[in-house]
Amino acid sequence: MSRYTIHPGTTVLLEPRYYGSIGWYAAMAAHEGCIVDYGARFDKRHKLTHRTTIADVNGPLSLTMPLSHPAKGEVEGALKWSDMRLSSHGDWWNVHRVALESAYGRTPFFEFYIDRFLPVLRPSVVEEFGTLESVDRHIDMQVRRLLDLPDDLEAPAGEVVDMRGSEPMIDCSPYYQVRSAKLGFIPGLSILDLLFNLGPEAQLYLYRIIR
Predict the structure, then answer these.
(1) In a 3-state reduction of DSSP, which class is residue 169?
(2) What's the predicted TM-score (pTM) here?
């Protein structure tokens, strides 16, 4: 059990996320155990597995990691998230890296944390990582280390809380954002926004909002 836990004896099931939202990590933190289900059936309507939203210079900006279409002979309805492979369309890794630098380059903690995510922001990402699962797991591992969150359980334990198929609804109170004087507070963003703006204090913020 982590210091965040407010629902002991529970395991939350979550869908994969690409730079998951603050609410997604708050839901993870609030339960004693967590499993991110990459074995769940692929559903092209669930875009957040490969899309995230950051605060750009002009407001919210969505970044999408493109996926390859199913190979000939593959039945889309039988595919799992773990089967989904990356596409190189549009040199997206460069688009995302430049967008993050533009959005967060002036935040207090960007330079301290960005190196953790650079492996999935390079031209080699499609060849080296290959799948959505590999990219999302790398990002998630880095974020958990920064927030002091435990790894996934191997199997559910205790009561199971199934949050797959929806975005966890957490009331996120305002926190410092570098452009709030111009844009006002923007809720519902990627966990990156919290980390780059607050740094180590992101842990304290997460602890407060789930209490």
Answers:
(1) coil
(2) 0.94
